[in-house]
């Protein structure tokens, strides 16, 4: 599953995508757990998960067919 990343997450991992090898489907909570195991440099990072351009909660199921992105908080003024 390819996951798009932005801003501070992109800077920390040095790439604009994360590739995770998961089954056909996974919950967002399980996805986060995999990310924190595979990318320990993201430990403590705060972000929301978007599925097909909509924010989703940890119990939402995502598949490799979905567009998934990690969106860190945005500030501005």
UniProtKB/TrEMBL annotation:
GO molecular function: nucleotide binding
Record's keyword annotation contains Nucleotide-binding: yes
Keywords, in A-Z order: Nucleotide-binding
A GO biological-process term: Mo-molybdopterin cofactor biosynthetic process
CDD domains hit by this protein: Ubl_MoaD
InterPro entries named among the record's database cross-references: Beta-grasp_dom_sf, MOCS2A, Mopterin_synth/thiamin_S_b, ThiS/MoaD-like
Pfam families referenced in this protein's UniProt entry, alphabetically: ThiS
Gene Ontology cellular-component annotations: molybdopterin adenylyltransferase complex
Family per similarity comment: Belongs to the MoaD family.
Protein's name in the database: Molybdopterin synthase sulfur carrier subunit
């Amino acid at each position: 599953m390819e996951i798009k990343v932005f801003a501070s997450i992109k800077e920390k991992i040095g790439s604009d995508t994360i590739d995770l090898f998961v089954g056909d489907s996974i919950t967002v909570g399980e996805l986060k757990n995999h990310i924190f195991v595979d990318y320990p440099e993201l430990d403590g990072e705060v972000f929301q998960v978007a599925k097909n351009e909509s924010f989703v909660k940890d119990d939402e199921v995502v598949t490799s067919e979905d567009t998934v992105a990690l969106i860190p908080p945005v500030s501005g003024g």
